[in-house]
C-alpha cells in the first residue's frame, strides 16, 4: 500500500449491498467494496461478472437498483459537477480528435477543469509525467497505440483527480507498451486507483488489493498473498538428486527443504519451490464460486 495510515482515513469508495438489475436479470447481487485513499485496487472477474457495471455506478454513469454507495463522500446518483471534476476516467481507448495535436487537446480539456482546481496545475509537467513530451506537437491520429493510451491517461489525470478509474487499460498493448504503462501507473504515487483487468500479472504488479467478482458477487478481497494463502495449502518442490528428477507437493516447503539439505547436502541440485500463482488462485476461486452459483 502506498500510504501507511489508510485505515484511519475515510474511504474514497464505500459500497455496501450494491445491486443492479437489468429487466429481470440481477447483474450485481449485493457487492461490498471499500477503497482507501492512495490505494490501488484491481477488480477482476470473468466476462459478464459485473465489473464495468460496478465502475459505471461509481462514476455516476448508471443508476443502481439498490445499496449504499459513496464515492469521495458523495452518492454518485447526486454527484454535482464539482464532485465529477474530482474523478478521472480512462475508458477503453477512444479514437476521436485524430486531427488535434496532443498538447492542443490537453490544453483545451484543461480549461474545462480550471474552475474546479484546488492546486496549481502545469500542463507540460502532466505531459512529461505520461511520457509524451516528445510527441506533444504531434497529431493524435499519428500516435502509436501505446502513445495513444498515454494520452488517454493524461486525459484521465487532467483534472488532478482524487480517484482514477482505469477500465481494462492495456488491452491490445505489446509487451513493451504494457511495461511502460505499468511504470507510468506505478509512478502516480498518492492517486487512488480502481482498475479492471483480465491480465492477472497486471493486477499483481499494480494493485495493493485484488477484488474478484463472479456473477455479481465479490468472492475474494485481499492482497495477492492473502488470496494465495486461501487456496495454497501445498507448494510444489522440484529438485534433482543423484541424477534423478523429483517433483512433489508438500504442505511445509521450508521444513521439507531444510530436511532435504540436512540429509543430502550439496547432492541436491536444480531446486525450485513453486507456490500458487495469482492465476492458480483466480481460477480456483472462480471455479469454486461458479459451482456454488450454478
Ligand atoms: N445496458 C444493459 N442492459 C442489459 N444488460 C446489461 C447491460 N449492460 C450490461 N449488461 C449485462 O450485465 C452483465 C455484466 O456486464 P458487465 O459489462 O458489467 O460485465 P464485465 O464484468 O465488465 O464484463 P467484461 O469482462 O466482459 O467487460 C452482463 O451479463 C451484461 O450482458
UniProtKB/TrEMBL annotation:
Cross-referenced Pfam families, in alphabetical order?
A: ABC_tran (PF00005)
Keyword terms, alphabetized: Antibiotic resistance, ATP-binding, Nucleotide-binding, Transport
Gene Ontology biological process terms from the UniProt entry: response to antibiotic
Which terms in the GO cellular component ontology are assigned?
plasma membrane
The protein's GO terms of the molecular function aspect are: ATP binding; ATP hydrolysis activity
InterPro entries attached to this UniProt entry:
AAA+_ATPase (IPR003593), ABC_transporter-like_ATP-bd (IPR003439), ABC_transporter-like_CS (IPR017871), ABC_transporter_ATP-binding (IPR050763), P-loop_NTPase (IPR027417)
Q: Where found in the cell?
A: Cell membrane
Chief site of localization: membrane
**Keyword flag Transport:** yes
Membrane topology, from the record: Peripheral membrane protein
Where the record annotates domain ABC transporter, the positions are 13-240
The entry's protein name is: ABC-2 type transport system ATP-binding protein
Amino acid at each position: 500500500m502506498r500510504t501507511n495510515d489508510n485505515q484511519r482515513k475515510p474511504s474514497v469508495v464505500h459500497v455496501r449491498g450494491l445491486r443492479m438489475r437489468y429487466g429481470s436479470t440481477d447483474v450485481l447481487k449485493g457487492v461490498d467494496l471499500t477503497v482507501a485513499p492512495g490505494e490501488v485496487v484491481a477488480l477482476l472477474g470473468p466476462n459478464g461478472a459485473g465489473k464495468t457495471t460496478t465502475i459505471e455506478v461509481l462514476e455516476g454513469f448508471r443508476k443502481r437498483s439498490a445499496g449504499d454507495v459513496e464515492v469521495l463522500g458523495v452518492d454518485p446518483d447526486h454527484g454535482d459537477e464539482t464532485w465529477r471534476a474530482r474523478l478521472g476516467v480512462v475508458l477503453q481507448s477512444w479514437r476521436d480528435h485524430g486531427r488535434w495535436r496532443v498538447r492542443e487537446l490537453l490544453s483545451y480539456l484543461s480549461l474545462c477543469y480550471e474552475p474546479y482546481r484546488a492546486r496549481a496545475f502545469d500542463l507540460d509537467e502532466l505531459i512529461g509525467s505520461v511520457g509524451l513530451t516528445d510527441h506533444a506537437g504531434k497529431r493524435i491520429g499519428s500516435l502509436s497505440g501505446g502513445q495513444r493510451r498515454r494520452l488517454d491517461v493524461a486525459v484521465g489525470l487532467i483534472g488532478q483527480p482524487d480517484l482514477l478509474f482505469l477500465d481494462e487499460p492495456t488491452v491490445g498493448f505489446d509487451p513493451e507498451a504494457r511495461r511502460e504503462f505499468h511504470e507510468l501507473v506505478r509512478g502516480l504515487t498518492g492517486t487512488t486507483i480502481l482498475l479492471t483487468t483480465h491480465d492477472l500479472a497486471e493486477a499483481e504488479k499494480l494493485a495493493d488489493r485484488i477484488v474478484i467478482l463472479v456473477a455479481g458477487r465479490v468472492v475474494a478481497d485481499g492482497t495477492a498473498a492473502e488470496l494465495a494463502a486461501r487456496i495454497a495449502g501445498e507448494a510444489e518442490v522440484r529438485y534433482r538428486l543423484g541424477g534423478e528428477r523429483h517433483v512433489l507437493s508438500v504442505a511445509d516447503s521450508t521444513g521439507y527443504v531444510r530436511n532435504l539439505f540436512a540429509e543430502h547436502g550439496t547432492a541436491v541440485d536444480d531446486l525450485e519451490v513453486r507456490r500458487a500463482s495469482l492465476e492458480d488462485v483466480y481460477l480456483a476461486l472462480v471455479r469454486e464460486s461458479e459451482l456454488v452459483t450454478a
